[in-house]
Design a protein that fits this description.
Layout: H1 3-32, H2 35-61, H3 76-104, H4 113-139, H5 143-169, H6 175-203, H7 210-221, E1 226-236, E2 241-250, H8 255-272, E3 276-286
Parallel strand pairs: 2-3
Antiparallel strand pairs: 1-2
Length: 291
């Protein structure tokens, strides 16, 4: 299964679903003067932008390595994720301002059954998208698909709270509407900040996690010929890493034997660790213990 084609399909389906939700939320929210529904519509707009950026980033990331990009274009996913995160943070601040203004000025949202219907449609649509991406995510390991899956799940929660504020409006409890809008803005900000940090770490060449690094070290120790792992560095190329290792071997070994050990270690690491795109093994001769 081609992970890039699958990610593209997930992105397109997400765009179509969110455009549909944006239209009905915006129309009904404006007519009913519901701040939480308008905030929910803005959330759908950000989802459309995010899905579009995901599709573009995925397209660039799928390009093979070339003379100008020796290790491929994998980091494109994280560059576009950074753009998505910034747009989400800006959007959350705008929603926060509008919702706080609504609470302070005691704006009243008119209750209407269309709001209930829109919430129900949104929850059903997002649940369907969630289960679809969940099934795909189990078949294809891709951070973008996992992010989409979590986003659909979170939207179900957000819209459920919007539904609660609308129902309370029927009992003349109007202040909840603005409070829910504030809650949605905080949620969008949190999600945007998390995406920003994750993307930033990859773009700044953050090392692979310590657990995986320790397992790679254990893999190196499984070769009795290797006297020492002199150094172990990792460089992210996107969702995978390049592992650069320097090993110390007996200096009395001939060149062929030294490179044979290095090649075996390289292939073993690339085969056993899904996170590793490429392993580069350098050999450093050391003095023999033989007298």
């Amino acid at each position: 299964m081609d992970r890039f084609k699958v990610t593209k399909k997930v992105g397109i389906i997400g765009i179509i679903g969110n455009i549909f939700l944006l239209v009905i939320k915006a129309v009904v929210g404006i007519i009913a003067k519901s701040q939480s529904m308008i905030a929910d519509a803005a959330n759908s707009a950000s989802d459309i932008f995010a899905s579009t950026m995901t599709a573009i980033g995925n397209k660039i990331a799928s390009e093979p390595s070339d003379e100008d990009h020796n290790f491929g274009h994998g980091k494109a996913e994280y560059i576009f994720s950074l753009i998505i995160s910034i747009s989400m943070i800006v959007l959350s601040l705008k929603i926060l301002y509008d919702s706080a203004f609504s609470v302070i000025n005691k704006n009243i949202a008119d209750f209407s059954w269309p709001l209930i219907v829109v919430c129900a449609i949104t929850i059903i649509t997002k649940l369907a998208l969630y289960f679809y991406t969940r099934v795909v995510s189990k078949k294809v390991h891709n951070i973008l698909i996992e992010a989409n899956m979590k986003d659909h799940r979170n939207d179900c929660i957000v819209t459920s709270f919007t539904l609660l504020s609308i129902i309370l409006g029927m009992f003349k409890i109007y202040w909840v509407d603005g409070i829910v809008g504030i809650g949605i803005s905080i949620w969008i900000f949190y999600t945007g900040a998390k995406i920003f940090i994750d993307s930033y770490n990859v773009l700044m060449d953050r090392s692979i996690d310590e657990n995986t690094k320790e397992k790679i070290s254990e893999c190196i120790k499984s070769y009795p010929e290797i006297k020492e792992a002199v150094s172990l560095y990792t460089i992210p190329t996107g969702y995978k890493y390049i592992v650069v290792i320097t090993i110390a071997l007996d200096g009395s070994l001939d060149t062929f034997k030294s490179h044979e050990i290095a090649d075996k270690l390289q292939h073993k690491i690339e085969k056993e660790f899904e996170e590793v795109d490429m392993a580069i093994v350098h050999v450093e001769p050391t003095k023999s213990n033989k007298k």
